[in-house]
Amino acid sequence: MTFALPDKQVRPKGGKGRQAAAMARLCWAAGWPLLVGALATNLISGLLPTATAWLTKLVVDGIVSGRPQVALLGVAGGLATVGIATGVLPQLVTYLQSELRRRIDRTMQDRLFSAVNRFHGLARFESPAVADKLQMAAHVNGTAMMPALTGMFTAGRSAVTVASMLVTLWILSPVMALVVTAAGVPALLARLALSRRRSRMVADFAATARRQSLYSSLITDVRAAKEVRLLGLGDFLKGRLFGELRATQTAERGLDRRGALIQSGLSGLGAIVAGAGLVWAVHSAATGGLSLGDVTAFVAAVAGTQGAMAGLVDSLAIGHEALLFFEYHADIVSLPDDLPVTTSGELPVLRQGIELRDVWFRYDESLPWVLRGVNLTIPYGTAVAIVGLNGAGKSTLVKLLCRFYDPTHGSIRWDGVDIREVPPARLRERMGVLFQDYMSYDLTAAENIGIGDLPALADRDRIRVAAEKAGVAGPVRALPAGYDTMLSRTFAGHDGPGVMFSGGQWQRLALARTLLRDGRDLLILDEPSSGLDARAEHEIHHRLRQHRSGRTSVLVSHRLGAVREADEIVVLSDGKIAESGTHDELIASNGQYAELFAVQARGYQSSLR
Ligand SMILES: Nc1ncnc2c1ncn2[C@@H]1O[C@H](COP(=O)(O)OP(=O)(O)OP(=O)(O)O)[C@@H](O)[C@H]1O
């Protein structure tokens, strides 16, 4: 089991405008009626403060000038209606926004995981840059995006309030309208600059945050718990986690201090402007330039403009930061497939065989060659065994046969058809493969086998037959709920706690999953018995020999006793085929195979003495 440390920082690319447009399109697709509804209610809410200010002025002026009661009552009724709307609309806005958040959540998850499922090979998962982005993108959902969306709504609402308040102010005092606007501009610029800094900080500390989550998962993950305890790594990991946390918090603190200083300065400036305006308004009222209603409207307009301007700037800043995270999602969603795949092309039913023609392969241009000109034929209906020392390239060859990567040079042909000329799914549905690093799923025993062939998931008879062939039927029947037992200690089953299998039992279960794909053209077994006890290994290989006879199969194994009956044994050494032949031929030629076989045989004989 490995936990990868992200090796470099990932800063998403692309302009904010482009990302904002992409996000707007996503929100539209997620639920445009909700989006329009939420936007409209937000904008109407934005007009309410101005309406309240004007209606209050009319009421006050009406009372002072002794207007008829009916007219006054009408205005008061209007004021009451605006009051009701002020109380009700925020609830409606909240509901519409929550529903929109759920829709956006679904749309984002759908797009993200569909994009990941579209990667046909493994290269994307092994790229540190992509893995880092994936980790960031997995946290970006509707909830994380809401600040950007509500930020846009609030910005729209605040803009409406600012505009309407400024009109009110302009009517009462154009000079004051200009002064309030001018005082708001530095606030806008300062807060946008702060927000940019904050976004940069989030990007700069992305790797730090990922390392934090790596250390916390190592401390909490059940798979790491054994080694963490045995080696006493708990405090070591916690120390590293806190080191990262301290680094992030120090940067955050610096930014918060700077923000607090700037905000205080700007608030002081706003208070001076509002105070000066009040002095002017009182003076004008005293000299008859303004009515009492004008003064109340003026005070409300100054406070409203300043408040709405602050809201506008804050919303823009919050939206700006949320957009940064959206970019990780957008980058993954737009990432092309790692393999050039075709959507058409048929794969014939295997009748001649599979041929590797001068196959060269390396995982990356910067890495050494793993396979160097491999020429190998796996004739139809035969069992070919691949043996060799650790790192010789055996599992790599298996991965190329499954087309998880394309050969760097050369080709792999299936009855003469280059496997790059058919969709990978069509190739993969023709094979059953047991990987060396097989998966153990936190699912029931039946599901662990059944997912080997999804249409058989509910077919208990087929699952039982596969379990029998893999020699795991007995252990499964002995489980508390038989095939329905949850094989997990961290997820409980329907009837109580889950149960864990032993390493060898898991391996047999994985073998059963592979054998469920029985009728496929090609069976590949990469170290199918590495975790089995001697008796189980003997028994399994006996069954597999029966199962493989007459079928096309590839068997990779370090246990040479297990491969001796293969039709052909291929010895891979340093990425090349060193020798090949039947067991007897290879023993007679006294090469690498004979040497390896002799070493293993000596080991067994000496332990018998
Ligand atoms: N995903 C990968 N990315 C980069 N290098 C890899 C990757 N997988 C394997 N390698 C390298 O390729 C070489 C061959 O590995 P491979 O797993 O094919 O060997 P193997 O013959 O199956 O070994 P073993 O007997 O230990 O299972 C090794 O040097 C290994 O470090």
Automatic annotation (TrEMBL):
Coiled coil: none
SMART domains assigned: AAA
Main subcellular location: membrane
Entry's localization field: Cell membrane
ATP-binding in keyword set: yes
A single GO molecular function term of this UniProt record: ATP binding
Keyword Lipid metabolism attached: no
InterPro entries in UniProt: AAA+_ATPase, ABC1_TM_dom, ABC1_TM_sf, ABC_transporter-like_ATP-bd, ABC_transporter-like_CS, P-loop_NTPase, Type_1_exporter
Alphabetically ordered keywords of this record: ATP-binding, Membrane, Nucleotide-binding, Transmembrane, Transmembrane helix
Membrane topology, as annotated: Multi-pass membrane protein
Superkingdom of origin: Bacteria
Transmembrane regions listed in the UniProt entry: 26-50, 70-96, 148-169, 175-194, 260-282
Protein name: ABC transporter ATP-binding protein
